[in-house]
Amino acid sequence: MPSLEKSQVKVATIHEVGCSVDDLLEGANHRQHQAKGAAHALRAHAKNIQALITAADNDLEQGIPDDETLEHVKKWLLRAYHATTNFADHWSNLEQQAIGEINALKRAVEVVSKLHKVEDLKLQRIVQGLQEDDLAEEDDEISQTGAATPRGRPVGVRPGKTIKEIRQAEEVAAKGNGEKDIDSMNEEELEAYLLSGE
């Protein structure tokens, strides 16, 4: 029979592992939402920079400011646009990585949860078996002595007569007419007579 303590340790350990995996899952969910928000914000900034680049192109076509200055502005706007889109792509990749972690951790939570249920069921069966064994032992003691005491009798009470003593007492009782002649009894009969309490 498996040990009660071992089962309790298993259930507690699996519970702790489950809590740790659940915390990891929560962290992965947080990272996924953070990455999604960052990528969305960076793409919005990239659209704004793209609008500035389009405006600079329009100004270049119309020849409004100095062409050389506008070329430098456009060059730096393009750099900002590419840097922003690269950051957005990086955060999108982090979002996908977090989604992969979430899927793996969800699977781990399912496995640990199933394992916890199995071990918890085993623990309940062990406890139930131990309780049934205790009840059965107590019932045996009660049925044998009328009370649940160690060794089947109350403490300080002499055990009952042996089979030999009972037979000898029956023989003595069968020989006479009710009156016992102590002088005619041999040693064994005398002992049986004295132990019988008659």
How would you characterize the overall build of this protein?
By secondary structure, this protein is mainly α. The protein has 2 domains: 142 residues; 37 residues, no CATH class. The chain is built from 4 helices and no strands. The protein is rod-shaped, with a radius of gyration of 46 Å. The model has no long low-confidence stretch (mean pLDDT 79).
Short description:
The protein is mostly helical and 198 residues long. It has helices spanning 4-62, 67-145, 163-175, 187-196.
Q: Kindly, what is the distance between the CA atoms of the first and last residues, rounded to a whole number of angstroms?
A: 51 Å
Task: Calculate the mean pLDDT score and round it.
Answer: 79
The total of helices stands at 4
Strand content: under 5%
The largest sheet, given as strand count, sense and whether it forms a barrel, is: none
Number of domains: 2
Portion of residues within helices: over 70%
Any low-confidence stretches, pLDDT <50, length ≥5? Answer: none
The tally of beta strands, per DSSP, is 0
N-to-C series of helices and strands: HHHH
Q: Structural class, judged by helices and strands? A: mainly alpha
Rg computed from alpha carbons, rounded to a whole number of angstroms: 46 Å
Shape: rod-shaped
